[in-house]
Amino acid sequence: MKNIIKGLLMAILLVGTSCSSKQSLQEYFVEHSENSNFLSVDLPVSLLNMDKVDLNEAEREALSSLKKMNVLAFKKNESNTLEFEAEKANVKAILQNEQFIDLMKLNTKYGKGIIKYIGDDETIDEVIVYGDNDEKGFMLIRVLGNNMKPANLAQFMKTIQKSDYKGEGLESIADFIKG
């Protein structure tokens, strides 16, 4: 009888421990990539066609530190309002993890958002951009790279302005949000 009770207590403890573990952002992306309310897109940096732009050394370094962007967008409609609220709360809970360091808060006419990163003052492993709009839905972007530096992000933004990139490759995201 004691062995049965010990076994049940152990099972309850294991189940309780596994249920209380928090989902990672990467797990969230993978889990929701096939959900019909979401659009999931991986965008390589090569999409920006920066090889045609005359870049200085700092700009080349900034560009070479970036690998890709993962985009996950939830489109809200009349029939998925409850799911929207639940998923928005899930994402915000994940982003409350102390590994995500606040970089900037956004408040625009399109909605509210935040930019966070994982890393330290010297190198950034990942940049996360999250924004939501109570009428349209939300978008979550992971910018992944190798040895990204805080200065590289600002340099990268300047570099994109030099290019003739007009949003090619982002049509599926725009169509999803519009349609």
Key structural traits:
6-stranded antiparallel sheet; disordered N terminus; alpha+beta; 179 residues
| Percent in helix | 25-40%
What is the N-to-C succession of helices and strands?
A: HHEHEHEEEEHH
- Which blocks of ≥5 consecutive residues have pLDDT under 50? 1-20
Structural class: alpha+beta
Cα-based radius of gyration, to the nearest Å? 20 Å
Distance between the termini: 61 Å
Q: Which sheet architecture does the biggest sheet show?
A: 6 strands, antiparallel
Report the mean per-residue pLDDT as an integer: 78
In brief, what are we looking at here?
By secondary structure, this protein is of the alpha+beta class. The chain has six helices and six strands. 40% of the residues lie in helices and 31% in strands.
Describe this structure in words.
The structure is a single chain. This protein has one domain (23-178). It has a 6-stranded antiparallel β-sheet, with helices on both faces. By secondary structure, the protein is of the alpha+beta class. α3 (57-64) packs across α5. 40% of the residues lie in helices and 31% in strands.
Task: Indicate the topology.
Layout: H1 2-20, H2 25-32, E1 38-44, H3 57-64, E2 66-75, H4 81-95, E3 101-108, E4 111-119, E5 124-133, E6 137-148, H5 150-162, H6 171-178
Antiparallel strand pairs: 1-2, 2-6, 3-4, 4-5, 5-6
